[in-house]
């Protein structure tokens, strides 16, 4: 069984595939709560995929590269400091956001994921 840190690291490193859809399908549960503070909240795999689909349609986000700057665990909780880079299907960059996140792990699954970031940075994506 992987450690919580290994689970989060694997999830984040594969998030760039197909907009994060395969990672969500692999590591989320039917009840995983994903909170993007001030932007969105999803519950379960299908709502998370629908949110990803919506961002691709509305903002053109096709790929998310997650650059892990720091990671630390406290039992089943994993804290991350990241630079998330958002790209269009043609590889051009939409924008970057510095993010602090917390993941709660049970077994090898993510049961909660909360991200905190400057919401105005994301709002600039839609204005561009």
From TrEMBL:
Q: Name one Pfam family in it.
A: LEH
Q: What range(s) does the Limonene-1,2-epoxide hydrolase domain occupy?
A: 4-122
Name of the featured protein = Nuclear transport factor 2 family protein
Question: Whose protein is this, by species?
Answer: Rhizobium changzhiense
- Source organism superkingdom: Bacteria
Gene3D superfamilies (UniProt xref): 3.10.450.50
